[in-house]
Write a structure and sequence with these properties.
six-stranded parallel sheet; about 220 residues; alpha/beta
Length: about 220
Amino acid sequence: MKGIIFDLDGVITDTAKFHFEAWHALATSLGIPFDAAFNEKLKGVSRMDSLKLILENGNKLDYFNSEELQEMAAKKNEHYVRLLESLTERDILPGIQELLLTAKMQGVKCGVASVSKNAPTVLRALKLEKAFDFVADVAKIKRSKPAPEIFQVACAGLGLLPDEVIAIEDAEAGIKAINSANMVSIGIGATLTDADMTLRHTGLLDFKLVEILYSKARKGR
């Protein structure tokens, strides 16, 4: 194992509550029902694709042109970014700092593959921007998760091959993307049955465990 690639939301930190609040406000303003269960469907999905899913749920996708969709997505993001101002190092999920530190000591490269355009802002707020060797630029990604592109880009950015990397995700779309990229996958959350290993929460992450999983998974392929 020469590299570890992390998703951001739900793996490094949990900004799901901020996404929920921002999407809920937008959906409510459009008269579209939006609850926590529907918010789960947006995990690992890009901002514009999330907006389209919300509009489809309210049978209003055909009501808006491309420019109006961009304006609504921007409005949601402005709300979300304001909420991000409250993030601090205390919001890093359990186990992540220790895993990053041990990986660095062992010479294992670390990258981020997140569909969030705010990933650099979040990492700065968490004071983790220097902890990663590469952060994929989602603006340059043509096909979002579950397509493997963002993980392939992160892998290339680390200067590694897919079979040298393990990746950590908390969303079904992300696990599908990792598997399609021929990387070993760790799912955070009991429902992610397609992952090579599933952990209930990030606090169970441990460098030796990750290393063992990587070795076993690669031997089984």
